[in-house]
Automatic annotation (TrEMBL):
Name the record gives this protein: DNA-binding response regulator
Keyword Transcription carried by entry: yes
Domain HTH luxR-type: 147-212
Chain positions found as 4-aspartylphosphate: D55
Bilayer-crossing regions: none
One protein family per Pfam: GerE
Highest taxon of source: Bacteria
UniProt cross-references to SMART domains, sorted A to Z: HTH_LUXR, REC
GO process terms (BP): phosphorelay signal transduction system; regulation of DNA-templated transcription
Organism: Planotetraspora thailandica
């Protein structure tokens, strides 16, 4: 089945460019376009897409609030933020709102299509330049006080998997590092999502940092 996509951007030229590349991808289907955050929320509710590609700055409701409302709804749409603004406030705001990915518009179109597929599959993706900055910021912070995420109930093996997720490794890379199958890694990830009440891998990364696993 094709991945159903909604594009939300107030710039028609941006939507046209993405529309053309999506049309050429046999596994992707563009089902709607929105020029505002409010329109994006309505389309997510009525069209039930798999992924909403969301701009940040739009008239009226911005992309962060639209992302929050989509995540709070009863649908299963996942949000991939695509913006020109490489700003920490936007990054953190989008992730807190429940975005499953954060990319910059200067990325290659093929990379954006790959990101849509990754997010649709239940994974998460953040632009490499942003990931490096987030890691650097965490590294510069003093040791955190104990957080509510103490990983109670998480096994030693699950902690290993969580630590590797925090390093940005894919399921295949984790499998190779731990010498286990990809299917087994997926099982561990599913268990971690349930035990830690996390929506996706982005939230698992945040929890891992709060627990200090990145220091291992």
């Amino acid at each position: 089945m094709s991945v159903r996509v909604v594009l939300a951007d107030d710039q028609p030229l941006v939507r046209s460019a993405l529309q053309m590349v999506i049309a050429d991808a046999p596994d992707l289907e563009l089902v709607g376009e929105a020029g505002t955050g409010a329109e994006a929320v309505r389309l997510a509710q009525s069209l039930h897409p798999d992924v909403v590609v969301m701009d940040i700055r739009m008239p009226g409701m911005d992309g962060i609030e639209a992302t929050r409302l989509i995540g709070a709804g009863s649908g299963t749409a996942r949000v991939l933020v695509l913006t020109t603004f490489n700003d920490d406030d936007y990054v953190y705001g989008a992730l807190r709102a429940g975005a499953s990915g954060f990319l910059l518009k200067d990325m290659a179109l093929d990379d954006i299509l790959t990101a849509i597929r990754v997010v649709a599959a239940g994974d998460a993706l953040i632009a490499p330049s942003i990931t490096r900055r987030l890691i650097e910021e965490f590294a510069e912070r003093p040791a955190p006080a104990p957080r509510r995420h103490d990983l109670a109930g998480v096994t030693a093996r699950e902690r290993e998997v969580l630590a590797l997720i925090a390093r940005g490794m894919s399921n295949a890379e984790i499998a190779a590092d731990l010498v286990i199958s990809v299917a087994t890694v997926k099982t561990y990830v599913t268990r971690l999502l349930a035990k830690l009440d996390a929506r996706d891998r982005v939230q698992l990364v945040i929890i891992a940092y709060q627990a200090g696993l990145q220091e291992g």
